[in-house]
Amino acid sequence: MDVLRTVVTVALFLVSIALIVVVVLQKSKGEGLGSIGGGGRLFHHAQSGLDAFLDKATTYVAIGFMVLAVLASAFDVFI
Question: What is the pLDDT of residues 20-72, one digit of tens each?
C-alpha cells in the first residue's frame, strides 16, 4: 500500500502544478466582483478556441485534483 500511496501523492502533486499552470494561462476577464452589480460583459463576449480549451481543461484538472485529494485523505484515514 505504500507504493499506491506514493503514486497518489505524486499524481496529486503533478495535477496541482497542472491546475496552477492552466489557471495562470487563462486571460483575465477583468470583471471581478463588478459582474454582480450588473456589468454583464462577462456573459456576452465570445471565447476564442484557446479560451474555451483552457476553461474545459480547468474543469477537468480541478475534478482530477479533488478526486486525488479525496483518495489521499482516504489512504490516511483507512490505511
Answer: 999 999 887 766 665 566 555 555 566 788 888 999 999 999 999 999 999 99
* Chain-centre distance for alpha carbon 32: 18
Amino acid, single-letter form, for residue 40: G
Among candidate residues 26, 19, 20, the one with its CA nearest the CA of residue 60:
19
Q: Which three cell numbers stand for residue 5?
A: 500511496
- DSSP classification of residue 58: H
Give CA–CA dist 2/74, Å, rounded.
13
pTM of the model: 0.74
What is the domain partition of the chain in residue ranges?
1-20+46-79
In angstroms, the first-to-last Cα distance of the chain is 8
Q: Quick one: cell of 51?
A: 479560451
